Design the sequence.
């Protein structure tokens, strides 16, 4: 019996695939097959991926289970895989999630493992992102943002920067007793999920916000406040977003300047933290005369200490807000949560991540608020007045609500 010939659409796909393989070579074909297995779009690929997942995770998992008597019983291993995770302040999420897991399980410490991506150690980014934050810049962020964030949690006692994914696989097999993300394997990389914090908080469970400024950084900030005589007034810290990637998300600098000018200088000391990407540029003319804390743009520990020392932090939706969001000692109001022209801040994407439109994260303190409106002058003034009233009526202690 002769085989049934393929239909015309199938035939066209086969001919097209064969043509691309001839033009691009065997390496391209193997990479394409690997991508199809990792992210299958068709039923055959999904079936084969399921088989591979069972064999890969099952086989290595069995080895890891056999080694459990020889591995640590009290350390949580966190895998941050650059193939699926960005080199940004997003790392604040898995750090906080990990600490909550550690406390729930009664573990003693956390070991953080960085896993290199397939593209020169990172994931493949879009051309517009590469044009602004290229791979050397991402390597710089690795040492100046990601590793310093880990130092804001004393329970992180070990950091491993893997040189290969096989090294990460070895660590995953060897230390598989307590792992986050729970289903992580280097051959099947997965990233953290905000829902791992959002869901428990919505269910009424306690969620710790554990990031803290180191004592030496707090001491430096206190010295700076005294030298500037800012310790005699209420410190208002305004963090700017002002760089070339998705500029539609940037701060409304004119509005922030007018707001700062309208505050009573006898009661408030206003300082600005510039965007790290433009911190070496001259300050915008409209902000001339205001104090810029450039040290906080370059040193993450100083930034966190400044945020803790502030009477109130004000900002638009940007990376550094994670430092405030996961530190219960920080009071903040964040504006401009949605920007529909930027894929990371559309309504649909925020809902996909698990956020409720119009609400602050459920684990926020009473002194931490998301404002789902643009950072216009009237909105800034209204929300500042509301938070000021909240602070004054409840005292300066940013304790969590019962």
Sequence:
């Amino acid at each position: 019996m002769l085989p049934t010939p393929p239909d015309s659409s199938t035939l066209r796909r086969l001919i097209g695939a064969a043509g691309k393989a001839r033009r691009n070579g065997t390496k391209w074909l193997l990479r394409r097959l690997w991508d199809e297995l990792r992210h299958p779009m068709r039923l055959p690929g999904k079936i084969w991926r399921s088989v591979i997942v069972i064999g890969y995770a099952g086989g290595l998992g069995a080895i890891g289970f056999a080694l459990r008597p020889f591995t640590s019983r009290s350390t949580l291993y966190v895998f941050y895989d650059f193939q699926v995770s960005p080199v940004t302040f997003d790392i604040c999420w898995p750090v906080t999630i990990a600490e909550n897991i550690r406390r729930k399980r009664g573990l003693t410490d956390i070991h953080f493992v960085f896993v290199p991506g397939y593209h020169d150690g990172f994931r493949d980014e879009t051309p517009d992102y590469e044009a602004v934050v290229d791979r050397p810049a991402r390597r710089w962020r690795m040492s100046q943002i990601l590793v310093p964030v880990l130092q804001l949690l004393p329970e992180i006692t070990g950091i491993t920067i893997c040189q290969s994914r096989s090294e990460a696989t070895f660590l995953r097999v060897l230390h598989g007793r307590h792992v986050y993300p729970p289903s992580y394997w280097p051959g099947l990389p997965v990233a953290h999920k905000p829902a791992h914090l959002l869901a428990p908080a919505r269910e009424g469970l306690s969620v710790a916000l554990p990031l803290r400024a180191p004592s030496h950084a707090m001491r430096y900030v206190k010295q700076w406040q005294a030298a500037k005589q800012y310790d005699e007034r209420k410190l208002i810290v305004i963090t700017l977003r002002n760089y070339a990637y998705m500029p539609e998300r940037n701060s409304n600098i004119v509005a922030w300047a007018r707001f700062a000018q309208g505050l009573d200088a006898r009661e408030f000391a206003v300082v600005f933290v510039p965007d790290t990407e433009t911190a070496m540029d001259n300050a915008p003319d409209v902000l001339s005369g205001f104090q810029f804390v450039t040290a906080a743009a370059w040193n993450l520990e100083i930034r966190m200490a400044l945020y803790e020392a502030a009477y109130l932090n004000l900002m638009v939706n940007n990376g550094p807000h994670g430092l405030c969001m996961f530190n219960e000692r920080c009071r903040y109001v964040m504006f401009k949560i949605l920007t529909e022209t930027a894929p990371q801040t559309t309504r649909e994407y925020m809902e996909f991540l698990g956020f409720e439109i119009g609400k602050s994260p459920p684990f926020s303190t009473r002194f931490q608020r998301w404002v789902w409106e643009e950072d216009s002058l009237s909105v800034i003034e209204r929300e500042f007045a509301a938070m000021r009233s909240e602070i004054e009526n409840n005292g300066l202690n940013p304790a969590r609500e019962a």
